[in-house]
Amino acid sequence: MAIPLVNLQRNYQKYESDYSRLLLETASSCQFIMGNALKQFEADFAEYLGVKHVLGVGSGTDALTLLLKAHGVAGKTVLTQNNTFIATALAIGNAGGKIALCDVDEQTYQIDADSYTGPTPDVVMPVHLYGYPYDTEKIKAKFGNDIVIIEDACQAHGSILNGSRCGSLGLGAGFSFYPGKNLGAFGDGGAVATNDDNLAEEIMALRNWGGRIKYVHDREGGNSRLDTLQAAILGFKLSHLDAWNQLRNERAEQYRQLLGDCQTIILPPETPANSLQNCHLFVIRLKEHDRDQVLKQLNEQGIGAGIHYPVPIHLQKVYQNMEFAKQSFPVSTTIAGQIISLPMFPEMAASETATVAETLLAILNS
Length: 366
Ligand SMILES: Cc1ncc(COP(=O)(O)O)c(C=O)c1O
What we know:
The structure is a single chain. By secondary structure, this protein is an alpha/beta fold. The protein is built from 12 helices and 12 strands. The protein has helices at residues 8-14, 16-29, 36-49, 60-71, 86-94, 137-143, 197-206, 228-238, 241-259, 291-300, 330-336, 350-365, and strands at residues 53-57, 77-81, 98-102, 123-125, 148-152, 160-161, 164-165, 172-176, 190-194, 265-266, 282-286, 339-342. The chain has a 7-stranded mixed β-sheet. The radius of gyration is 21 Å and the shape is globular. The chain starts with 7 loop residues before the first helix and ends with a helix. The site of pyridoxal-5'-phosphate (PLP) has 15 residues, from helix 4 and helix 5.
């Protein structure tokens, strides 16, 4: 039996009657835009994160773009990491900012601000990559307490750093509700989280054609609201998020037990003390094998392993004329050629995790 990287069908089938009821109830209200289910979800997610404001928007990319725009990064430098999904970097450019990149820590794969040698950036945007709770204090230690931090929390729903939820650690955070995320919608969706009243006010205008009052537009905005139908589904899923993250962590622990003795596999970093990783992705590293061959063999044997991400940002074609494309980022570049993401989703059976581990070990030992 094939084991995909992520299986959304199982979740859908298990909760189908709840989803059907919610969709029909919400649709019958005909409040398709900015309806009550959206307001309720924004309030619930804000409470869950421990922030004052959550604002639903069209996608994670929009959440980051609107945050940066609202803060006013036009012409300013925003530092992020070289090993992330392309949307992190695109959001900076979309908001008119200048992208600066830095390498990542070899143990945690998270941003390594100490490796950055350029002028102090105006904003730093770390990514809690794979759901690992990155410690934003490290950025303050490097650039000072006043440095503006905007979290890319698109993979970090439910993760906790030292008792605080990821998404509540900086000036603002962007979340994605892409269907495969730990909190995933039935389509695209995203949210901004912030404690800052002015920033929230600005984003409410920017997501609504530049004004909060109908036909009054005081700045250039766009159209990026989270659909009421999506919010109804997300509200339901939010009440299960911690339990689903716990199931992911059980599978992660099983992978650790089964693969821990293999000398050529580097397991993901352990979660820091007083913290929680949501295990969005379980990413191992192979230093002594041909990663692409191993991945090919896994895929041929029905294991839906993947790579997050195969091409670092500075090597993406879109950025080939940028200054940073000429820099070298040795850690992120090396890691990109060695990592494999193993199947991971809450409904994954223990027997499936065992099959993935067995298949992988057989390939590595062959
Ligand atoms: C780290 C990261 N940033 C940004 C995004 C963009 O989110 P979206 O696909 O909702 O636009 C994603 C997810 O796709 C992501 O994983």
